[in-house]
Amino acid sequence: MCRHLAYLGAPVPIRRLVVDPPLGLYRQSWAPLLQRYGTVNVDGFGVGWYADGDEVPARYRREGPIWADASFADLARVVRTRALLAAVRSATDGCAAGEAAAAPFAAGRWLFSHNGALPGWPGGCAALAAELDPGELLELAARSDSALVWGLVLRQLRAGAALGEALTETVKLVAKHTEARLNLLVTDGSSIAATSWGDTLFHRTGRGVLVASEPSDEEPGWQEVPDRSLLLATAAGVTVRPID
């Protein structure tokens, strides 16, 4: 399992979103409060962010725990962003280790993260892998369940699907093959789509929009997303609807 978050709003330092919140993603790497599967998230981390004037996001990913990386502490202090996707990783058994397996995954203007697992990985996922053509399989960033799910989402996006449609169609496809946990999160820098499917998901508006696996503080305003739902967010607000 993993923990992840996305943000849209006025430019703020990365540190304010990821490191400073008392119950935020940084702390969730060793002490998540609501995580149902696994206990810590120290198998890698990553942050993807958008800079004004460039729709292609930058990424910083590492294999180890977020709190052990002094370079990230410096980066997070000085880099400001209007849109961000960040994640800390708890690896699924049998999945590849290393930086390449850490979210966010990226292609063009899109950033993606998967909080969950595909049961039976890898052998039990052959039917899902067969949904991708050989070129798409070779393009996968890592030998992991999350990279495979990203490949399925990316196929939808490249075919012209909107963010929410790409996630829901992927969830429905995967659910036909396995009882997976599929909390998915994707952004293009101006909007966010997320699914709640087997684990917790929350959102808050006010000082921008935050979407996260669990609240990063005890301030009011956090709202839980019902299981098996799709969340869509822009700077203007959030909508939530059931996944059929």
TrEMBL record:
EC number(s) per UniProt? 3.5.1.118
What is the protein name given in its UniProt record?
Gamma-glutamyl-hercynylcysteine sulfoxide hydrolase
Keywords linked to the UniProt accession: Glutamine amidotransferase, Hydrolase
Matching NCBIfam families: ergothioneine biosynthesis protein EgtC
**Gene3D superfamilies according to UniProt:** Glutamine Phosphoribosylpyrophosphate, subunit 1, domain 1
Question: Which reaction(s) are listed as its catalytic activity?
Answer: gamma-L-glutamyl-hercynylcysteine S-oxide + H2O = S-(hercyn-2-yl)-L-cysteine S-oxide + L-glutamate
Extract the GO molecular function terms from the UniProt entry.
hydrolase activity, acting on carbon-nitrogen (but not peptide) bonds, in linear amides
Entry's Gene Ontology BP terms: ergothioneine biosynthetic process
Signal peptide positions on this chain: none
Q: What does this protein do?
A: Catalyzes the hydrolysis of the gamma-glutamyl amide bond of hercynyl-gamma-L-glutamyl-L-cysteine sulfoxide to produce hercynylcysteine sulfoxide, a step in the biosynthesis pathway of ergothioneine.
Q: Where is the Glutamine amidotransferase type-2 domain?
A: 2-244
The annotated pathway is: Amino-acid biosynthesis; ergothioneine biosynthesis
Q: Name one Pfam family in it.
A: GATase_4
Organism whose genome encodes this protein: Kitasatospora camelliae
Question: Which domain of life, per UniProt?
Answer: Bacteria
Q: What class of enzyme is it?
A: hydrolase
InterPro entries (alphabetical): EgtC, EgtC-like, EgtC_Actinobacteria, Gamma-glu_amide_hydrolase, GATase_2_dom, Ntn_hydrolases_N
Q: Does the keyword Hydrolase apply?
A: yes
